Amino acid sequence: xxxxxxxxxxxxxxxxxxxxxxxxxxxxxxxxxxxxxxxxxxxxxxxxxxxxxxxxxxxxxxxxxxxxxxxxxxxxxxxxxxxxxxxxxxxxxxxxxxxxxxxxxxxxxxxxxxxxxxxxxxxxxxxxxxxxxxxxxxxxxxxxxxxxxxxxxxxxxxxxxxxxxxxxxxxxxxxxxxxxxxxxxxxxxxxxxxxxxxxxxxxxxxxxxxxxxxxxxxxxxxxxxxxxxxxxxxxxxxxxxxxxxxxxxxxxxxxxxxxxxxxxxxxxxxxxxxxxxxxxxxxxxxxxxxxxxxxxxxxxxxxxxxxxxxxx
Length: 312
What we know:
Blueprint: H1 6-9, H2 13-18, E1 48-58, H3 70-76, E2 80-84, E3 92-97, H4 111-128, E4 133-138, E5 143-149, H5 152-167, H6 180-192, E6 198-203, H7 210-221, E7 224-231, H8 233-236, E8 244-247, E9 252-255, H9 262-283, E10 288-292, H10 297-305
Parallel strand pairs: 3-4, 3-6, 6-7, 7-10
Antiparallel strand pairs: 1-2, 4-5, 8-9
Helix pairs in contact: 4-5, 6-7
């Protein structure tokens, strides 16, 4: 497991607030530098009231009346609006997984801590460019919702809730992991967002199912979705560990990954599971951003979403 150190195993509000000074050098916008993981992203649904005309489409409830194209509306007899490419007011919702399977780390930090840090960095980045940011936090027991707002106070509020949820994780907890919690969190997200939102899902995708896919497909019909898939290097290459000790909180068992090809079978199962989730997301034009536990989250976001290694 992770080396001793509170901020490696558990996060806190102070640490999440401190990350605001690292929240730069990357963007979730569809137009990206060549080296960015999101470069060339197609069919983005992010819209705003900018200067560059993008397309003409039918009016939808909630559209700004000031974007109505009355000439086309009068000619066709159906209300039409003009949409533009530049983002002015883009609500963002970050969905953060804090379930028991996230409470794992073999090198630098726990997956649960890394997920919390990705959410915090995202929040400070979004707030910094003047957009609204909200969150859906979930674990095996409950879901906490914070509607998007352009407010540092509200961001501090839900980051505190996230830190508390993170600190509730324990291998000795009587709470059992519930794979269905992922589906429930996505349904809550579906209820919160309408259209032209950016939804960022930060999870290890444990419990991925057809119902989860259905929810994320519905969300992506009128919104942009980006998935940050959190993993630990040991999950992909268990051969690096000579001996492993597993525990249910009461008993411990030492296993040898080489024995009866346990390590190879585990790696194969993990790779197949990840490949299945990834292929389904990409098939629905949902980018997958891999984030591992062996390096700082801000550095990984800058390298993958900023197309650079230097903080700007």
